[in-house]
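Hey Z.,

So I finally got round to the heme C thing we talked about over coffee. Here's the setup:
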Amino acid sequence: MKKTTLLTIMALATLGLSGCGGNDEFKPTDGMPVNDLFAQACASCHGENGSGKFGFLLKIAGSEDAIEDMAQKIRDGGHIMPAFVNISQSEAISIATYVKGQ
Ligand code: HEC
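And the result:
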């Protein structure tokens, strides 16, 4: 019984937490406003306008990170964060600029 529970947890962790797959489901439409891009691609994890969940978890609004670093994070993903393979470099730069300005 205990072994089964452990296996279940491991399976869930592998499925739910791995960022390796990347996010190829999100496809921005041409000329999509940056606030819509953010709302659709990022807000589910980073909260409305990047203000974080519960006000602090994964808060990125007003980040001190360099725009280039944030854009790279969007396109390459992180340990958990998926890579947004359909977001172009210029869209990533706009999103990063938007996030910093929040
Ligand atoms: C599935 C949830 C998820 C989504 C969707 C997501 N992120 Fe993340 N993001 C994370 C997690 C978790 C971290 C921190 C750990 C890591 O690197 O994976 C993170 C980290 C970041 C960081 C680095 C924060 C720091 O303090 O160094 C930035 C910048 C960022 N995300 C921006 C974005 C942007 C912009 C989008 C939308 C294009 C986005 N994220 C979409 C989960 C997500």
